[in-house]
């Protein structure tokens, strides 16, 4: 129910909840009806409790957020991963990337997993002083949240990261990216690209195949060039 933004009409319209999701939820409700439901609870109230827990990051470090929901990405099965993709729930991409510990944590994360890039898909609250348009993911649920993307690379992998940012913005992948107006941060210590994802139906599930396609294209170009 968390991944489908609850079983609502908005979730259906955003193609986040399918018929199978509704059938599965109905079965779970039937199995746990006496324990789940009473005069003070409903499907909506139960979902809100689950959602609130998911987006609560109290007591979690940035390192905890990076590793609690991550997946490695490789060009083909059984090949070494070149990208790690983390879903960050509860923190906006802008708040995350301006933290003093972000560069250190992201760099160590890439080193520990022996990958070139860290890609973060974020869903978090937009700060009041943030002038960028916020995205309401679901009417009545998660107000003030927006979906975003952050790409981190160490200096030696800057060109690889730049190639990915260009790929994401030129390919018809329906992410509807709105890059940061200031452009990527690029210096002697890191490369960081950030953007708002304006397509609220997008999750990591949709982004993973795009990353795989990018890696396959890069590998193909390298083979042809060699």
TrEMBL record:
Residues 47-215 form the DHHA2 domain. Pfam families: DHHA2. One of its GO terms (molecular function) is pyrophosphatase activity. One of its GO terms (cellular component) is cytoplasm. Signal peptide: none annotated. Belongs to the PPase class C family. Prune subfamily. This is Protein prune homolog. The lineage of its organism: Eukaryota, Metazoa, Spiralia, Lophotrochozoa, Platyhelminthes.
């Amino acid at each position: 129910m968390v991944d489908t933004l609850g079983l609502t009409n908005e979730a259906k319209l955003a193609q986040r909840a399918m018929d199978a999701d509704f059938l599965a939820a109905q079965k779970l409700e039937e199995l746990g009806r006496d324990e789940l439901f009473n005069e003070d609870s409903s499907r909506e109230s139960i979902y809100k409790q689950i959602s609130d827990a998911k987006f609560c990051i109290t007591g979690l470090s940035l390192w905890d957020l990076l590793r609690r929901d991550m997946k490695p990405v490789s060009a083909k099965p059984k090949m070494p991963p070149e990208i790690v993709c983390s879903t960050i729930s509860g923190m906006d991409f802008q708040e995350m990337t301006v933290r003093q510990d972000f560069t250190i944590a992201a760099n160590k994360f890439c080193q520990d997993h022996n990958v070139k890039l860290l890609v973060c898909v974020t869903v978090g609250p937009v700060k009041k002083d943030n002038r960028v348009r916020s995205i309401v993911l679901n009417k009545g649920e998660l107000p003030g949240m927006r979906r975003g993307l952050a790409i981190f690379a160490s200096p030696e992998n800057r060109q690889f990261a730049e190639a990915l940012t260009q790929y994401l913005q030129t390919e018809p992948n329906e992410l509807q990216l709105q890059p940061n107006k200031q452009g990527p941060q690029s210096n002697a210590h890191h490369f960081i690209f950030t953007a708002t994802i304006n397509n609220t139906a997008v999750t990591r599930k949709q982004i993973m195949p795009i990353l795989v396609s990018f890696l396959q294209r890069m590998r193909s170009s390298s083979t042809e060039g060699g």
